[in-house]
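User: Teach me something about this protein's shape.
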Amino acid sequence: MILRKFIGDLRFERQMIYGEDTLFLYNLICKNPRVAYFNVEWYFYRQHLCSVTHSEKVKMDEKYFECTRIIRKSEYEKNQMPYVLYWEEWLLEQMEKSFVLMKENNKKKRWKELRKMAVAERKHPLFYKLNLCRRLRFWICFFAYPLYKNYYNE
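Assistant: First, the predicted structure itself:
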């Protein structure tokens, strides 16, 4: 539960298609709210396999990754490197999962487009701040998929 007065003029980003709720909560947390924890299950989150969030079209769309990139950039501007690297890793994870989904469903055009995004991401300076094993896993996913499928794919 969030007090309305604490939200103030903070609103969902209308131009965002995916991740607007995550970005909203991130911006809210950046306002340093006072938080209380109750060990009571009041909220149940249901995920449906046929929801928009789980669709192939969404996970292929470049905008699917936009929220993560915005938060990563914001943390970078605050010089919060541990958080920057967390969001960089999260981005790689999202890209890998999307790629695996496209490969498994034989969406050749889409996985080739994701591979191009992966090449661009590998050129990002933050990519090289991650440890070698993490970078290697990303590379194997996109450029040696049979190895990735055998060792990393859950």
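Now, about its shape. The CA atoms of residues 99 and 111 lie 6 Å apart. The mean pLDDT is 86. If you'd like, I can walk through any region in more detail.
User: That's plenty for now, thanks!
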